[in-house]
Amino acid sequence: MPRAEGRTTPEFAQVDPKTKLPVDNGARNVWVTETVLATALNVSYMASAQSLFSLVVGIALLLAGVGFIVLALGALPRGSTAAAGEWYFLASKEASCVGPGEPK
User: Cα 73 vs. chain centroid, distance in angstroms?
Assistant: First the structure.
C-alpha cells in the first residue's frame, strides 16, 4: 500500500453513497480519544506527584531554617550587651595586631 500524501488516498477511502465524501474512520477516532485521555491522566498524576514533592521540600527547608536559627542563637555569647561589646573589642584588637618584625 503506497504512503498517503494527504489525509486520505481516494482509491482506498470508503465513500458515503449519499454525500460522495470519505467516511470517518471509527477505529482511528477511538484510538485518538484513548490516547488523549491516557495522556491527560498521566499529566494529572505527574502534577500531583510534583506538588507533593514541592510540599515535602518546602517543609524540609522550613525545618532546616528553624534548625539554623536555633544553632545561631546557641552560638551567640551569653550575658549583657557590655560583655558582647567587650568581646567584639577584644576580637578587633587581636585582628589589628602587627606581625613579627614589623614596627609597632
Answer: 32
**Entry pTM:** 0.51
* DSSP sequence for the chain: -PPPSSS--TTTS-B-TTT-SBPP-HHHHHHHHHHHHHHHHHHHHHHHHHHHHHHHHHHHHHHHHHHHHHHHHHHSPPS-HHHHHHHHHHHHHHHTPPPTTS--
Give buried/exposed letters for 28-66 (b at 16+ CB in 10 A, else e).
Answer: eeeeeeeeeeeeeeeeeeeeeeeeeeeeeeeeeeeeeee
pLDDT digits (tens, 9 = 90+) for 82-99: 555 555 555 555 555 555
Q: How far apart are the first and last CA of the chain?
A: 99
pLDDT score, position 34: 97
Between 20 and 63, where is the model more confident? 63
Looking at per-residue pLDDT, the higher value among 67 and 11 belongs to: 67
